[in-house]
Amino acid sequence: MRFQWLFLVVLLLAVALSVGPSEASGTQQGNRPALVQGMIVDQYGEPLPGVLVVVEYTEAPASASIGASGGFDGTGGNRLKVSQRNFYSKEDGAFSHPELIAGTQYRVRFEKEGYVPRERVLVLAIAANEMGTIVMVSGDVEKARSAYEKGFSAWESGDVPGAIEPMKEVVEVFGDSDVSDQMLVVALSVLGQAYLQQNQVADAQGFLERLQSIEPDNAIALRGLGRVYAMSGELPKAIESFARSVQVEPDNANGRFMLGYALELTDQASEAIPHLRASLEIQPNFPPAHQSLGLALAATGANVEAIEQLEAYLEVMPNAPDAAEMRAKIEELRRH
């Protein structure tokens, strides 16, 4: 099947993570003052004192990419702390953070040495907002950091199998934590992509779904899940996921191509063409995009340009499994 074959050979052209726009704004001073409060316990249900409670808001929409050093450049956008004061949980585990504004979206982070950090994103609805009980699990964060560096180095060097076990160690340290921590986010991203490259779709889906649950607008998760759905034959779901990824990162060539390709395969040639053109503008001379664009153009009757695109595909991939089929298609278009 052309679809499944191509998904096995297409590499991700860009690795990027995006966080959607925050509703927070430093200009909402006219709104009502508010606070968040709750209780922090350890994994055994015991109150956990001395936990640092940090509340941030995002000044403006921003994207983050994995940097060459293995960390993030601008993770989560331009986050600003609400207060310069430090707020900690008390002896009974209770915490409270004032100086907030009702109707604003905040990211609340809980940190304590020896424990895996936790995060929550919420919009304050009333003056006093109850967050309930936050469970923090003790974990070897240094072990996670060491495994992260090893796994990311392997991933960067192209050693996909060598990246899997170290990144799984990172995920194990974090347990079921939902924190948008750079190590956990990158580990889930690498594992999802690595298992996709190895055609282990079910494993990839689990890691990518967890990544999306932590960061709903994560473009890598959306593109990866789109590939999962496509490889499973669920094209409508794939198109929806690819379309969301393009909304998040409109200039990502891979996302544009995947969306256009899925549309072309489902006989939506007119809708596919703009995305395939955009993919080639961002990443020129990408053979699968030339092929898919050529077939979409042929379906709309633009035979001359369709031939040009299919020839561009064959020029780079003369021995592709479907090369004979594409040559026959070109001859057919020339006769009409």
Briefly, what is this?
With 336 residues, the protein is α+β, with helices and mostly antiparallel strands. 48% of the residues lie in helices and 19% in strands.
| Rounded average pLDDT | 85
Report on the biggest sheet. Answer: 5 strands, antiparallel
Instruction: Report the end-to-end length measured between terminal Cα atoms.
Output: 27 Å
**SSE topology string:** HEEEEEEEEEEEHHHHHHHHHHH
| Cα-based radius of gyration, to the nearest Å | 24 Å
**Backbone structural class:** alpha+beta
> Helical percent range?
40-55%
- Which CATH architecture of the largest domain is right? Alpha Horseshoe
Whole-number tally of structural domains: 2
Task: Characterise the protein shown here.
The protein has 336 residues and is α+β, with helices and mostly antiparallel strands. The chain has two domains: 2-17 and 141-334, Tetratricopeptide repeat domain (Serine Threonine Protein Phosphatase 5, Tetratricopeptide repeat, Alpha Horseshoe), CATH 1.25.40; 21-136, Immunoglobulins (Immunoglobulin-like), CATH 2.60.40.10. It contains twelve helices and eleven strands. Strands 3, 6, 7, 9 and 10 form a five-stranded antiparallel sheet that branches. The chain is elongated, with a radius of gyration of 24 Å. The two termini are 27 Å apart.
